[in-house]
Amino acid sequence: MRLVAGNWKMNKSPEEARAFGQDLSRAGLPEGVRALLFPTALALEHLVATVPSTVGVGVQNAHPEVCGAFTGEISAAMAKEAGASWGLAGHSERRELFGECDALAAERVSGLLRAGLNVMFCVGERMEDRERGLTDRVLRRQLGALKEEDLAHQRLSVAYEPVWAIGSGKAAGPKEATEAVLMIQEFARRPLTVLYGGSVNPTNVERYFQSGELGGVLVGGASLNPQTFRELLVAVAL
Ligand code: PEP
């Protein structure tokens, strides 16, 4: 089933997350599509308590260790205890703004899988990479950092998120997205679920599914409003 995942980044307090969950529950969800939300870690429990039970809730970032002297971090096991069933790793904001390298992103993936969570691993090129014809090479490098058993893991999904398309209003075209999806699946040597992310909204979302290759979309800005998030679900539902 197609997946619509919302990444809230550093938005929505615990009370705002609770209100979002209540709104979504009141409105009801369309059939034929899976919904997933990544709130801040502080709002996990509030969202889990209020969204319809079919909505997955995930942690945006988790340290590979279970516990220890890692100030400011939380572990996948802690997120799971708070109700998370998914975890994001490798988001370009972690890579670009917090200097996270391929190796750390890959370790975070391993930690999430070890904790029993589903993982959404993000990969994507910068505009200068694309202009220099390096998109494939960048994606292969990011994917190649994963342990082989993690890449083969049934609980791993990949989100293709070109850095230049995130939060910019400049969404990639369906052709660019499909090319990347096929390249990622070929690299993984299996039909894993690949999503597209980058300035997706209810108006442009349908075009990404026309090729039949995409498993879903990862949405930032357009996931913050419950009505808009629901419109995305309705547009994507089969
Ligand atoms: C994201 O942060 O993963 C994202 C896709 O953001 P936006 O939809 O706002 O471009």
3D architecture notes:
It is a single chain. By secondary structure, this protein is of the alpha/beta class. It has a single domain (3-236), classed as Aldolase class I (TIM Barrel). The protein is 38% helix and 16% strand. It contains ten helices and eight strands. The protein has helices at 14-27, 44-50, 76-81, 92-97, 102-114, 127-131, 135-144, 148-151, 174-188, 226-236, and strands at 3-7, 34-38, 56-59, 86-89, 118-123, 156-160, 194-197, 216-219. The chain has an eight-stranded parallel barrel with strand order 1-2-3-4-5-6-7-8, surrounded by five helices. Strand 3, helix 3 (76-81) and strand 4 (86-89) form a beta-alpha-beta unit. Helix 1 (14-27) packs parallel to helix 2 and helix 7 (135-144) runs parallel beside helix 9. The longest helix is centred in the last third of the chain and has 15 residues, at 174-188. It starts with a strand and ends with a helix. It binds phosphoenolpyruvate. The site of phosphoenolpyruvate has 13 residues, from strand 8. Residues 7, 161, 166-167, 197-200, 218-222 line the site of phosphoenolpyruvate.
What's the gyration radius in Å?
17 Å
Low-pLDDT ranges: none
Structural class: alpha/beta
Strand order of the largest sheet: 1-2-3-4-5-6-7-8
So, the CATH homologous superfamily? Aldolase class I
Report the biggest beta sheet as strand number plus sense, adding barrel if it closes: 8 strands, parallel, barrel
Outline type = globular
The CATH architecture designation is Alpha-Beta Barrel
CATH topology: TIM Barrel
Count, helices: 10
| Strands, count | 8
| N/C terminus separation | 8 Å
| Tally of individual domains | 1
Percentage beta strand: 15-25%
Whole-number mean pLDDT? 97
